[in-house]
């Protein structure tokens, strides 16, 4: 009885691990490649948008034709940094943003060319592993190592099955 429960738990964890790895790898691939899909994935590292978007969340953003006051957008501040804040006002072609948890507007207005897109969906807590998985160490630890363990496990299972088949054939041939 204990062996059956252990096997069920082991198989459930195994399947969940495969699903999580697949989803994480897919999200990383989509965010890194030009897939033709009209959205990007970013992780929110600070609490400036709380309670609407908690630190450690993933946001999915999509380019829009027009941005309005109240929209939550992700924009580039420089070539390496993105920020997710709400548009609090607009003047001509400039957008003034502010984090929901902040008391004042951001220091500089942004131009439309800096906007990556409007937040269309958010997933709490997945931002930290997503960001870590984008680093070389994280990619190895969260993608390569578990994938190698899964592949090795499958090779062992296949080997066991082939041994059983060979043993069964040998028994049939000796009869």
Could you explain how this protein is built, in words?
By secondary structure, the protein is α+β, with helices and mostly antiparallel strands. It folds into 2 domains: 1-36 and 134-164, no CATH class; 38-125, Umud Fragment, subunit A (Ribbon), CATH 2.10.109.10. Helices cover 44% and strands 23% of the residues. It contains 3 helices and 7 strands, in the order αβββββββαα. It has helices at 2-32, 127-133, 136-174; strands at 40-43, 58-62, 72-76, 82-91, 94-98, 110-111, 115-123. A 7-stranded antiparallel β-sheet has the order 1-2-7-3-4-5-6. Helix 2 (127-133) crosses helix 3. The longest helix is centred in the C-terminal third of the chain and has 39 residues, at 136-174. It starts with a helix and ends with a helix. The model has no long low-confidence stretch (mean pLDDT 83).
């Amino acid at each position: 009885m204990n062996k059956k429960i252990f096997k069920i738990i082991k198989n459930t964890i195994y399947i969940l691990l495969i699903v999580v790895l697949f989803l994480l790898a897919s999200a990383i691939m989509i965010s890194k490649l030009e897939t033709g899909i009209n959205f990007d994935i970013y992780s929110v590292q600070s609490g400036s948008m709380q309670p609407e978007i908690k630190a450690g969340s993933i946001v999915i953003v999509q380019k829009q034709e027009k941005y309005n006051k109240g929209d939550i957008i992700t924009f580039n501040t420089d070539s390496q940094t993105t920020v997710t804040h709400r548009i609090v006002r607009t003047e001509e072609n400039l957008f003034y943003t502010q984090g929901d948890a902040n008391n004042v507007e951001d220091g500089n207005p942004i131009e439309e060319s800096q906007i990556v897109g409007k937040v269309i969906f958010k997933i709490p807590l997945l931002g930290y592993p997503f960001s870590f998985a984008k680093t070389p160490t994280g990619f190895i630890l969260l993608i390569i190592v578990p994938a190698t363990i899964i592949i090795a496990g499958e090779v062992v299972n296949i080997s066991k099955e082939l041994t059983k088949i060979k043993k069964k054939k040998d028994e049939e041939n000796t009869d």
